[in-house]
Automatic annotation (TrEMBL):
<comment type="pathway">
    <text>Isoprenoid biosynthesis; dimethylallyl diphosphate biosynthesis; dimethylallyl diphosphate from isopentenyl diphosphate: step 1/1.</text>
</comment>
<comment type="similarity">
    <text>Belongs to the IPP isomerase type 1 family.</text>
</comment>
<dbReference type="GO" id="GO:0006694">
    <property type="term" value="P:steroid biosynthetic process"/>
</dbReference>
<dbReference type="GO" id="GO:0004452">
    <property type="term" value="F:isopentenyl-diphosphate delta-isomerase activity"/>
</dbReference>
<keyword id="KW-0413">Isomerase</keyword>
<keyword id="KW-0752">Steroid biosynthesis</keyword>
<protein>
    <recommendedName>
        <fullName>isopentenyl-diphosphate Delta-isomerase</fullName>
        <ecNumber>5.3.3.2</ecNumber>
    </recommendedName>
</protein>
<dbReference type="InterPro" id="IPR015797">
    <property type="entry name" value="NUDIX_hydrolase-like_dom_sf"/>
</dbReference>
<dbReference type="InterPro" id="IPR000086">
    <property type="entry name" value="NUDIX_hydrolase_dom"/>
</dbReference>
<dbReference type="Pfam" id="PF00293">
    <property type="entry name" value="NUDIX"/>
</dbReference>
<keyword id="KW-0444">Lipid biosynthesis</keyword>
<feature type="domain" description="Nudix hydrolase">
    <location>
        <begin position="53"/>
        <end position="203"/>
    </location>
</feature>
<dbReference type="InterPro" id="IPR011876">
    <property type="entry name" value="IsopentenylPP_isomerase_typ1"/>
</dbReference>
<keyword id="KW-0443">Lipid metabolism</keyword>
<dbReference type="GO" id="GO:0005737">
    <property type="term" value="C:cytoplasm"/>
</dbReference>
<dbReference type="GO" id="GO:0046872">
    <property type="term" value="F:metal ion binding"/>
</dbReference>
<keyword id="KW-0460">Magnesium</keyword>
Length: 232
């Protein structure tokens, strides 16, 4: 697959978010085999997604000792899915050796640790790599608007930790912890309340979240490292 890096007019977008669009993501095939690098900008243009361009991502679900899930609202400055509520942290491993490492999913775990600190100010020692639990992968596609979207193989990572937050306001508009019942109510009333949710979070919520939530203290039965769930 050839990388297409079409010139984009970034006028009106946040300067820091534009800078981050030059980070190099990991292109993969439909079986999640790494096939090369492409900029975050290139990966998220719908004109490339429509040709089948696919990249690797991760979604972290962080729970505190009361089994409450930390939600974030994406900042208004975000280029894709601004102001949407989503799980604790969603981003991409980069095309660098330490985040390309597929043994024990260490690459995506390192990326998750890096982005938890970048977005939420969570120090790495509060979320050690060996505490992340990789559950499974989902493959989904969704437009954000006419120009931008997502087409990802998304690694789902759970972690239980009590953490200190120092929110990066350029990344995150707000945060809150919710119980399972509160999460269900948010989903059920989203249309009525005008609450916007990211598409991957809605897919995970619909297909997996609550059965995993019920087994937080022993997730062994939830682990499926071989399957890529095609939620297309």
């Amino acid at each position: 697959m050839l990388q297409q890096d079409t010139s984009v007019d970034f006028s009106g977008y946040d300067e820091e978010q534009v800078r981050l669009m030059e980070e190099m993501c990991i292109l993969v095939d439909e079986n999640d085999k790494a096939i090369g690098p492409a900029s975050k900008k290139t990966c998220h243009l719908m004109e490339n997604i429509n040709t089948g361009m696919l990249h690797r991502a991760f979604s972290v679900f962080l729970f505190n000792s009361r089994n409450e899930l930390l939600l974030q609202q994406r900042a208004s400055e975000k280029i894709t899915f601004p102001d949407c509520y989503t799980n604790t942290c969603c981003s991409h491993p980069l095309y660098v050796p330490e985040e390309l490492d597929e043994a024990e999913q260490m690459g995506v775990k390192r990326a998750a640790q890096r982005k938890l600190e970048h977005e939420l100010g969570i120090k790495p020692e509060q979320v050690p790599l060996d505490k992340f639990r990789y559950l499974t992968r989902i493959h989904y596609v969704s437009p954000s608007d006419g120009q931008w979207g997502e087409h990802e193989i998304d690694y789902i990572l759970f972690i239980k930790a009590d953490v200190d937050l120092d929110v990066n306001e350029n990344e995150v508009g707000s945060v809150k912890y919710v119980s399972k019942e509160e999460m269900m109510e948010i989903i059920e009333t989203a249309e009525e309340t005008g609450t916007k949710l990211t598409p991957w979070f809605k897919l995970i919520d619909t297909n997996f979240l609550y059965k995993w939530w019920d087994q937080l203290d022993d997730l062994s039965a939830c682990v499926d490292t071989e399957t890529i769930h095609r939620l297309l």
